[in-house]
């Protein structure tokens, strides 16, 4: 894709420099720079139904005070344009340092998630219906004998919890999506996987990536003390859901030989092995 050409023709932006950024697991991105501005051009597949709704959520949260790397409307007033059979958006570049594993960074992750879920709260939905987002992985759950029983067990346990609190979710709250800016403010970027769902799923994702729960959960509950009982009761269950998503996703990638965002097939195998290890299998 001619990123500079897309910026000129669709957004009326004339970059002085464009560089390819490390691709996401399901996307491609370019950093574009000129005097006075920096933006990220992001491209995803035409069938990515969450992309545009995630961009609209990023605008809503940014308006509420959570820095998100919001999208810029195109010349036609659209957040998403179609180019070469793909969806393309232009996002404000968020300067800063990715958060890491130290307690202050993990606490910042919990704090920002608490702000997000407060600003984008929803009425409770049906967990069993929400878990249908695992369906695209269904035909690949027999790639290894342990995957289907682990996934189905995690789903059954989540449904058995009954009604839980919902919000708009980031969907993949890894530390690399959080950036501490020069002013100390922490942003949460990359909203292409946003979805409606149980708050516990986002908290579980953050804990999974952090490798520990104490600092993430404590900071989250300072923002959302009303959820203390729910998190105590349901976090372990939704950690298993998060591992189930990882297992299904990497089984799907392996089955389809999807290599975007990674160095080679071994990285997909590692992702699946990590999920198995988390299940204790």
From TrEMBL:
GO molecular function, one term: homoserine kinase activity
Keywords: Kinase, Transferase
Enzyme Commission code: 2.7.1.39
Keyword Chloroplast carried by entry: no
Pfam families tied to this protein: APH
Domain Aminoglycoside phosphotransferase: 18-224
Name of the protein this chain belongs to: Homoserine kinase type II
